[in-house]
Amino acid sequence: MVLDAEIKAQLTQYLQLLENDVLFKVSAGEDDTSKKMVEFLNEIKEMSSKLSIEHTELPRKPSFSINRPGEDTGIVFAGIPLGHEFTSFVLALLQVSGRPPKIDEKLAEQIKGLSGQYHFETYVSLSCHNCPDVVQALNIMSVLNPGISHTMIDGAVFKEEVEQKDVLAVPAVYLNGESFSNGRQTLEDILAKLGSGPDASELSNKKPYDVLVVGGGPAGASAAIYAARKGIRTGIVAERFGGQVNDTLSIENFISVKRTEGPKLAVNLEEHVKDYNVDVIKSLSAKRLEKKDLIELELENGAVLKSKTVILATGARWRNVGVPGEEEFKNKGVAYCPHCDGPLFEGKHVAVIGGGNSGVEAAIDLAGICKHVTVLEFLEDLKADSVLQERLYSLPNVTVIKNAQTSKITGTDKVNGISYIDRATGEEHHIELQGVFVQIGLVPNTDWLDDKIERNRFGEIIVDERGATSLPGVFAAGDCTNSPYKQIIISMGSGATAALGAFDYLIRNQ
Question: How far apart are CA 133 and CA 125, in angstroms?
């Protein structure tokens, strides 16, 4: 048995939602993974009379496609879609059977309107919590447009392909055999990259908002909901809902919820916002903010939105080390998410830069996959919690180097080493390795703002007790502000505060 009893019970309920018959076309060899894949599909076939299996030849073994009888949809899974990709498999089943994808009608029309042939391939690791978003988006596109096909490829099964293409970060998407993108993307992101994004003039013609929220993380979502509940015209510009939450695997300090995962919380944030009368603009980032009669927000595509008040909730991003080689080798050995990209470094030597909680947790995770892990900490002592340090030092394949200043990351077409300076002696040392994971904290997404809004030396927006900034009518919340604690629950509270502050401002100034 491949599926345990609990998963089977859940799957039984989903299979009752199948609209029409679905055919698995299976391409399998004599290897263990092929046998396990066939067993996996046979188990599922026995759970519904609407499912059937046919053996065929596909470009990869083991792999299988999900089709309507007599019609190929172009959806292929190369490998066994377990782990985080099990949901992608279930959704593909339902959508191929005829159940409509849960996307906006305008998006569906954009997909159907694409002309030409688009053959997508996505390399994933089953432990990657970012990969399903991309896999599910491309599967939806395949269902809706006969000119689009998509194959999910488990990098752990097809290691030769991964090595040949130097795939060192997932999800890695190829279009018609050429590299298309790396990292998490939404359906809107993919369409924009294909030249089918939101129309700038259409956005610019929107009537002014009472409150316009910039950012779709916990602070932004909270602000949008609190504003909408006041019955005022509310909009939100969200490059991606969830923000940094999407990169958090486990959340255990969100009060009243014992445990959840970041991507799941991100989905819940978006669904909650959409329950209210909020004008949602996705997959676009802000470029310029200017106060005139109204506050104008220019987006990266040139559109200009107007509002009486604005709430900045742009969050933060991974901090770069800022050494030679980091930018050159991003996705070529330099990575920022051990959960996503760790499996690609199985049996290899990697370094983790950073000795805080995130760095030490990353090193512990990677030690179970990699041949050896070297932790480089700038200070004389690790900053991680003592329980994490105890676990780290108990691992036989981990080396901790403290008082080490990273000086450069080396390589040719991909990473082959890292150099650091011993801060006590001034001597430079070099370590030969294949991967570097950067875990040194966050930097606020405020570099697009000019000096009209006061920020501190870290780039954080300075706010008062109502979330107001130095620019009248502009408020801010969450990790982009000078709040001393960067926590999900605190960001949500500050988003609510900023929305109430904006509402109070409207009452007193309109």
Answer: 13
Total residue length of the chain: 510
Identify any residues that bridge with 312 across adjacent strands, giving them in sequence order.
214, 476
CB 477 within 8 A of CB 313: yes
Strands 63-68 and 71-78: antiparallel
C-alpha to C-alpha distances, 229 to 110, 192, 316, 402, nearest whole angstrom? 31, 31, 27, 51
Cβ(335)–Cβ(168) below 8 Å: yes
Q: Is the pTM of this model over 0.85?
A: no
Question: Which two structure tokens, joined as six digits, stand for 160?
Answer: 């030769």
Q: Domains in the chain, ordered, with CATH? A: 5-193 (3.40.30.80), 200-317+443-509 (3.50.50.60), 334-438 (3.50.50.60)
Residue 195 class from Cβ within 10 Å (0-12 exposed, 13-18 middle, 19+ buried)?
exposed
Tokens found for residue 225: 């909901």
CB atoms within 10 A of CB 5: 8
Continuous segment of H or E residues that includes residue 296 = strand 295-299
Per-10-residue mean pLDDT, the chain, length 510: 81 93 97 96 95 96 96 96 94 97 91 96 92 96 97 96 91 96 90 85 95 98 98 96 84 90 91 96 93 96 97 94 95 89 93 95 96 97 95 98 97 96 97 96 93 95 98 98 93 98 94
